[in-house]
Amino acid sequence: MDASNASSASSAASAPARRILLSAAGLAAGIAVGLALAGPTETLLGVMFVLPVVGVAAGLALGGAQLASEVREHVHAALWTTGTAVGLALGLTGGTVLVEAVGLEGGRLPADLAALLLVGSLAGAGVGLAKWVALRAGAAPPVPAGRWVAGEALALATGALLGGMLCYLALGTIRSVPAIVLIAVAGGMAEGLIFDRNWRAAAASTD
């Protein structure tokens, strides 16, 4: 194997881990920025705009981080980032409204974990649909929409649940800023895993 082939093989082998780490770092960083903007947003625009701003910040960071991989060459970059932002903002906001509507905001462990599952599912579904649209508009081969939507919903729901359980064990709460960021890291890692799996499935369909 010559040097160029060895380099290509090494890059391909490390790509899944890179996508997972980029996803986790992007989502966590975006959530942190969104939380930092929550106070000014509430002051300037009102409390009803806080969750959409947090979701947009998180989605922009997540989508932008994932474009740092070879994904940029195969998707519509603007749709990928803005779509991820819109999808995550809508899912996060809609999920939180639904949590409040069904009475899961009580602050006790079972209700909190159920709320994380619900919000994660809707946020993931929004992100998955956005990714599918961006892929359809770009050069990447299509993967069925249902696979993106269901996979991302399952990933963010599972990651949020596991992150929430870890936060309860380590911090005793899911409602502090460190806890929320930790949940975002777990959710981002799970999302990155599904993102990588679906991306490789799309690439394999061209082989």
Short note summarizing the structure:
The chain is mostly helical. Helix content is 81%, strand content 0%. Helix 1 (3-44) runs antiparallel to helix 2.
What does this structure look like?
The longest helix is centred in the N-terminal third of the chain and has 42 residues, at 3-44. Helix 3 packs antiparallel against helix 4, helix 4 runs antiparallel to helix 5 and helix 5 (145-170) runs antiparallel to helix 6 (177-204). It is globular, with a radius of gyration of 17 Å. It contains 6 helices and no strands. The protein has one domain. With 207 residues, the protein is mainly α. The two termini are 21 Å apart. Helix content is 81%, strand content 0%.
Write the layout of secondary structure elements.
Layout: H1 3-44, H2 50-66, H3 77-101, H4 109-137, H5 145-170, H6 177-204
Question: End-to-end span in angstroms?
Answer: 21 Å
Number of strands: 0
Number of domains: 1
Mean pLDDT: 87
Portion in helices:
over 70%
Shape: globular
* SSE order, one letter for each helix or strand: HHHHHH
The major β-sheet equals:
none
Q: Compute the number of helices.
A: 6
Tell me the strand percentage band.
Answer: under 5%
Class based on secondary structure composition and strand pairing: mainly alpha
Using only C-alpha atoms, the radius of gyration works out to: 17 Å
As residue ranges, the low-confidence spans are 3-7
Features:
single chain, 207 residues, mainly alpha, 6 helices, 0% strand, disordered N terminus
